[in-house]
Write a structure and sequence with these properties.
single chain, 749 residues, alpha+beta, 6-stranded mixed β-sheet, 4-stranded mixed β-sheet, 28 helices, 16 strands, elongated
Length: 749
């Protein structure tokens, strides 16, 4: 005989008197088991009740879905584990959450409906359908039913949708369950990014999308960007504002995002004239956004941009003028190819790749550890796929190769898998340590099984080695975690060494994260903004702003055998890379490559100044990552928010205290001028002419073009007003110093 554990109110009857239970069952003309079996097909916990609780917010992270639960009730986050939730609701507190004899007295209904004090406030009014569904479920003896979990959402149309202000589109959404069934998600679907309209004028609308009466979707002003109605098992969206309008759908533990673009029908924008696929794809999405593309920047500015992006250094005046001339005469590809073939490019790319690691690491290990090994590797082969494999590989003996120093940036198996996921997959896996990821596919099972793959890796005594048989703990159970890798995009069996199996899965060309992550990171490096932002946050609910472009870049990377130079070359030769800079360009315009914003240059100002003033023997190289103890960097404030106090831009600039090295450089420049050109000149007029010529040279080295006539006239007036040569030289020092700390020099335009 199989005994079933029953809710408390029935179990109590059993224990009070078997006769009472017999009378109870006779009165209902059915055994309890027959009742549950018969009614389970009407309302099931997993398909109906759990999604209602999610829509009401009962299992959110701020409520009972928190890791420790709330108020004696713990639910899985967004209903990701319905079997566990059923157990806690039906049997928790000895069955006190439910009362199958009098469902209205169930705590599960009284608290969220506001009939009992509830810390979560009103969540499930008794006027809503969800309340009555749960009530009927309790009345049916709270059947467990088949335990299934929604695995994904199917949205039609699948791709992004272009609209015009006032127009509407119908969207169908189905949940795909773990048993393969598909069901409509209404009315338990959560829609983020749009406001639900409240009037009933379109309830019975049977028209097609083009016939939808969009005027009936009335919303009290101020009108939100997007409104929607639930009509005939579909959602009807209406756009009211021009722009990018991503809409996120959530049903239980699964979510996805649909991209709406609303642009003006009268926008006089044309497609790019460039024949490159990159520019055509970028231009098409810019058209959808309603932005106009910025003009092409000047040849001089483009040359400096290339030097700083690809060479990691400021050009000397001679180099600057030469490359500007080549660009003006149509030889941009030759300029780029020369830079990509240089050792400076290897060093710059090594700095970029090492920054991916340090930004994802929780340790304080310096990125300098990896720069030289990566640069040496790139000088031999720029295959990013093999670079990743070599950085993750661990020798079988007690030794290490230089690239395996990557493992020093993690302290244990869990931090290591989080580092690898962030750096090489663009995924924030850490959320899944405490709960199934609320907006992504990653579950706690994935987290601990993938972490277990790295349990054998040990970093100690300046060695990186594998200690066979070592494990890590699954914090949920306190037991050893079993190593495994996800089953998508392919099934990878665990070999003798789990870390090697993980690397094989991670670096497989069909892995949906690895290649797009690399493409997005290289694009972000060169364009100043990511197609996916942030770069370590790839997920279905944070789609790339231009999916077609990211796919193209990923395909190009695969087709070129993961050549970094090939991908960089395509990007920097595009019209998108050469766009002019606009100080006030919206972030979306930057991400779409419609324009550019100035971006900080991660090179010490004194080093850039030395590189710019390379015409003299006193100019010297300085470690690009070493700052003077007198150097104080102030963050560049892009816009005013509640978190900052807006200050005068000049004040922000002066917060960059030049430091000892920069002051010494400027003083050396002026002293050199005096000792070589002024020491034997007595005429004040001639002295001023020489100083003005020196200032003109330094201005050209810093900004790449001649000073204006007004600037020259002002310099001469200032010099003439100072009777002493020492005062005139001090003026020259101050002027050069102001140029070097200006945004035009310290930022990349």
């Amino acid at each position: 005989m199989v005994m079933t554990y029953l809710p408390h109110s029935i179990a109590k009857t059993w224990f009070v008197a078997s006769l009472s239970l017999a009378i109870f069952l006779a009165a209902h003309s059915l055994t309890l088991a027959q009742s549950v079996g018969k009614l389970a097909s009407d309302i099931t916990f997993a398909r109906e009740v759990a999604p209602i609780l999610t829509k009401a917010g009962c299992n959110s992270g701020a409520c009972h879905g928190a890791a420790a639960g709330r108020g004696y009730l713990a639910l899985s986050l967004f209903g990701s584990r319905p079997a566990q939730d059923y157990q806690n609701l039906v049997h928790g507190l000895h069955g006190r959450f439910l009362d199958v004899q009098d469902p209205e007295q169930s705590l599960l209904l009284k608290k969220p409906s506001g009939r009992l004090d509830h810390g979560g406030d009103l969540r499930l009014p008794d006027s809503e359908v969800g309340y009555h569904v749960i009530r009927n479920w309790i009345e049916q003896q709270a059947p467990r039913g088949e335990i299934v979990v929604p695995k994904s959402l199917l949205v039609h149309p699948l791709d992004s949708t272009d609209l015009q202000p006032g127009s509407a589109v119908r969207v169908s959404i189905e949940a795909i369950w773990s048993d393969g069934q598909r069901t409509a998600t209404l009315p338990w679907l959560i829609v983020d990014g749009a406001k639900e309209a409240t009037d009933d004028s379109v309830t019975n609308d049977q028209s097609t999308v083009n016939d939808v009466n969009v005027d009936s979707l009335e919303v009290t002003p101020p009108l939100p960007a997007v409104t929607f109605r639930r009509v005939d098992q579909q959602l009807v969206f209406q756009a009211h504002q021009v722009g990018y309008l991503p809409i996120t759908f959530r049903f239980g533990p699964v979510a996805t995002t649909m991209q709406l673009w609303c642009s003006s029908a009268t926008a006089p924008f044309a497609m790019s004239k460039s024949t490159s696929t990159l520019d055509q794809l970028a231009s098409a999405q810019i058209l959808s956004s309603g932005f106009a593309s910025s003009a092409t920047t000047t040849s001089s500015r483009l040359a400096r941009r290339l030097w700083l992006d690809l060479m990691g250094k400021h050009p000397s005046l001679e180099q600057w003028e030469e490359d500007t001339h080549w660009i003006e005469t149509g030889k941009l590809p030759s300029v780029v190819d020369r830079m990509l073939a240089s050792s400076e490019f290897n060093a710059q790319a090594a700095h970029i790749v090492s920054s991916w690691v340090t930004q994802a690491s929780r340790t304080q290990v310096s990125g300098e550890l990896l720069i030289q090994p990566i640069a040496e590797r790139l000088s031999r082969s720029d295959d990013l796929l093999q670079l990743a494999i070599d950085m993750l590989a661990v020798a079988d003996n007690d030794s290490h190769h230089d690239l395996s120093l990557f493992h020093r940036f993690a302290t244990d198996a869990r931090t290591r898998v989080e580092l690898i996921a962030a750096c090489w997959m663009g995924v924030r896996l850490g959320c899944a340590q405490c709960h199934d990821h609320p907006l992504d596919v990653w579950q706690q099972d994935d987290y601990f099984s993938m972490a277990a793959c790295w349990a054998e890796i040990d970093v100690s005594d300046n060695l990186i080695r594998r200690i066979e048989g070592r494990t890590t703990t699954d914090l949920r159970t306190g037991r050893d975690a079993r190593p495994a890798v996800p089953t998508f995009p392919l099934s990878t069996s665990i070999s003798e060494h789990p870390d090697q199996a993980f690397v094989s899965w991670l670096c497989h060309p069909e892995n949906p994260y690895f290649t797009p992550n690399l493409a997005n990171r290289v694009w972000t490096w060169l364009m100043g903004a990511g197609l996916v932002e942030e770069v370590d946050d790839q997920r279905a609910t944070n789609p790339p702003v231009n999916p077609a472009l990211l796919k193209h870049l990923s395909d190009q990377l695969r087709n070129s055998d993961y050549s970094l130079r090939s991908l960089v070359r395509e990007i920097v030769l595009s019209d998108a890379y050469a766009r002019d800079t606009a100080e006030d360009a919206p972030r979306l315009a930057i991400r779409l490559a419609a324009s550019r914003r100035p971006k900080d240059i991660p090179i010490q100002v004194s080093l850039m100044a030395n590189q710019a003033f390379s015409d003299h023997s006193f100019a010297r190289e300085i470690d690009r990552d070493r700052q003077s103890s007198d150097m104080m960097m102030s963050p560049i404030i892009e816009s005013c928010t509640r978190a900052v106090v807006c200050s005068d831009p000049m004040s922000q600039g002066l917060e960059l205290v030049a430091g000892k090295e920069l002051n010494q450089l400027i003083s050396t420049l002026v002293r050199h001028l005096y000792e070589t050109k002024l020491i034997n000149v007595d005429s004040e007029t001639e002295q001023n002419t020489i100083v003005a010529e020196e200032l003109t040279l330094r201005y050209r080295q810093i900004f790449g073009f001649q000073p204006s006539r007004d600037d020259l006239a002002w310099w001469h007036r200032q010099l003439a007003e100072k009777p002493e040569l020492s005062d005139r030289l001090s003026f020259a020092e101050d002027l050069i110093w102001s140029w070097l700390i200006s945004p035009q020099f310290r930022q990349l335009y």
